[in-house]
Amino acid sequence: MFPLSVFVVAVVGLGWLIGATNLPGEWYAGLAKPGFVPPNWAFPLAWTILYIMIAVAGWRTFRREPMGKAMLVWAAQLALNFIWSPVMFTMHQIGAALVILIGLFVAIVTYIGLEMSRDRLAAALFVPYAAWVAFAGVLNAAIWRLN
Questions:
Q1: How far apart are CA 141 and CA 144, in angstroms?
Q2: Residue 127 parent element (H or E)
Q3: pLDDT of 16-44, one tens digit each?
């Protein structure tokens, strides 16, 4: 069985790697953005905290049922999470990135629903994540509309 540290290092490490290799850059800087865009420093801070929470939730689920439905949904949401940055910042596909965020939000809410009765802590760890992704979806939609 994998220790919690493996989940944390894998999730946070992959998240940082994807973020570092798919930077917003000049393209993103040149886009019209709504007035509610957080400062740039907020994103790595928020994502680091969220990735730790995602890892803890996934580890808890994995310990109980490594190939169960909740674990599969957890893996699916992580894949959607990790694909968003390349689609948005490297491929410059704002609309496709929004579709990914909608799928990601659905996967997060599904995970919460699956875990609510079995592991309330794992479900609760995903609530701030759902809120952040919902905000990211609104932000992504606004950028898409403005550009």
A1: 5
A2: helix 127-146
A3: 999 999 999 999 999 999 999 999 999 99
Q: How far apart are CA 141 and CA 34, in angstroms?
A: 10
- Three-state SS string over 56-112 comes to HHHHHHHHHCCCCHHHHHHHHHHHHHHHHHHHHHHCCCHHHHHHHHHHHHHHHHHHH
| Mean pLDDT on 104-117 | 98
Q: Report d(CA 30, CA 91) in Å as an integer.
A: 15
The average pLDDT across 65-93 equals 98
Q: What is the pLDDT of residue 117?
A: 97
How far is 122 from 34, CA to CA, in rounded Å? 33
Both tokens of 69, joined, read 């439905």
Query: pTM here?
Result: 0.96
Other Cβ atoms closer than 10 A to 108: 25
